[in-house]
Amino acid sequence: MSTEKLSEAENAAIANFREYLRIPSVHPNINYDECVSFLRRQASTLGLPIQVYHVVEGKPIVVITWRGSEPALPAILLNSHMDVFPTSNLRWQREPFAAEMDEEGNIFARGTQDTKAVGIQYMEAVRWIRAAGLTLRRTVHIAFTPGESTTPLSVNIHCTSPNRKSSTEKVQIIVDHFMRFRQEQKVKLDSNPQLTPRDLTSMTLKAVKDAESELVLVFDVRVSPTEDCSTLEDLFSSWCESAGPGTYVSYEDKPTNSGLTHLDTCNPWWLTFRDECQAMNIELNPMICPGITDARHYRKVGLPALGFSPINNTPYLVHEADEFLNRKIFLDGINIYFRLISALANVPAH
């Protein structure tokens, strides 16, 4: 073990992080009871009230609240999700839910990067702010949500026919359209150095389901916030029409535009966030991430949303085997959130 001396608060934060990681809240069939019990204990040690909302049966939303000195002001919501991506079919060198820490201080577990670290960092930052005797103008809610690690939009194209040959021919037509769309997106990306893959709508053929009288193509579609969703729906309908009668589209979650959070001088949240990061010598690279599904629900109701994770100098292993986070990076993140939360929750009325 590293000889680096840690404070009692830092050791407690690491212990809480590792305890949370040991809860196997693996999508899709999750029993959240253990997560909720853990968060109730954390709320108790924080001395803060906790509410558990059951909007959908079996998918609790947990909210820990610190009431601000000016509670009439709009609150700050710190959001993370409790569920984690499956570990099956990946060759882990370590047990994915043991939260082992090696001699370098690397903590190995599913959820270290996506996003159990963030949830614990929020809580520990609030704990440290309260221990420092600071007060905040605005109320702060720490939310832990279920079901983030799901496909943001699943499009099903049904190819029905009384005989298998006709269904297969329809599948080929749809796949050809799909491949042309991907190629068009690639051309856009290659021709504009200012674009990143996150700026474009992506499609992945996730599965082909063989039903009795039809073949169903299941596409994972990650819609860019700048995409015109009505145009996208028309596109899928045109594909079906070209494949012939008996071909139709269905949606598990119909595409909608959820709006953008504008990063300009009219957004005091962005200005405060940006200025505080600059003061910490943190270089920001704003980007659109259509695969991050929690924020779209807030944007749909007109709330500004900023996604930020203080992970740096770390291999990107989200959804991969041997996901890990170094304890120093984890603790640095708590200090970063200490400053960000303090600044954002003290933004004056505007």
TrEMBL record:
The keyword Nucleus appears for this protein: no
Cofactor names: Zn(2+)
Keyword tags: Metal-binding, Zinc
Active site per database record: 83, 148
Signal sequence bounds: none
Cofactor note: Binds 2 Zn(2+) ions per subunit.
Zinc recorded as keyword: yes
InterPro entries associated with the record: Aminoacylase-1_M20A (IPR052083), Peptidase_M20 (IPR002933)
Binding site for Zn(2+) 2: 114, 319
Record-listed Zn(2+) 1 binding positions: 81, 114
Top-level taxon of the source organism: Eukaryota
GO molecular function: aminoacylase activity; metal ion binding
Cited Gene3D superfamilies: 1.10.150.900, Zn peptidases (3.40.630.10)
Protein's recorded name: N-acyl-L-amino-acid amidohydrolase
